[in-house]
Every structure is written in C-alpha cells, then in structure tokens.
Amino acid sequence: MQISSEWGKGIATRPYICGVDDEAFLEVNARAFSWHPEQGSLDLSKLNDLFKEEWFDDEGFLLLEVENRLAGFCWTKVHHQSDLTVGEIFAIAVDPDFHGRGFGKPLTISGLNYLGM
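Given the sequence above, the corresponding structure tokens read:
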C-alpha cells in the first residue's frame, strides 16, 4: 500500500510475508519494545503461534520499508463477532533508528486504511 506522496519518496507499506520477514520483524519488534516484557520478548515460536490465530491475516500486517530496510510495522486484527466486525491496531512500532522522522503517522494511517477496506 503506497503511502501518500506527502510522506516522501521510497516510503511504502507492504504486507508481511510469513517465513521471509520473520527475522527482520523480530529484530525491530525487540528494539522498539525493549521496555515491554511481553511484546519485547516475542520470539519465533510465539510469532508462529500468533500466525495460527483465527484473526491473523498477513494482508493486515503492514511493514514500512525505508531505503530497503524495515523501519516499522502496523499489525492489525479484525474480530468477527456474530453480526459485528471490529478492527484494531494490535501492535505498531517504529525502529528506534528511524525515530523522529515522522513514520508513526503514516503507519497508523496505513493500518486504519486497511481496517476500513
């Protein structure tokens, strides 16, 4: 999903690819959530368990790449409850190396756009 051109050239989100993006995601997640005991300690085994959850949709797990490097992510969840569908941003983060560059807002917008589809 291309983010509005106002965010700059070379800035785009794309869906997560299981088995391909795992290592890069886990590294960014650990760095971004180093202060959080549960999210920051996510490992490959726990990640694979999350992939098996009924709510998991790789199309709603958006990665932000800047200059061919993973800079952040926005992981959404959609819950189908009887006749009601509810979406949420499950986890969102920017790699500390990319803090202060304004990537949180476009990540949030991409996630909300996905949920609104």
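The domain at 8-116 is CATH 3.40.630.30 (Aminopeptidase). Try to locate this feature in the token string yourself.
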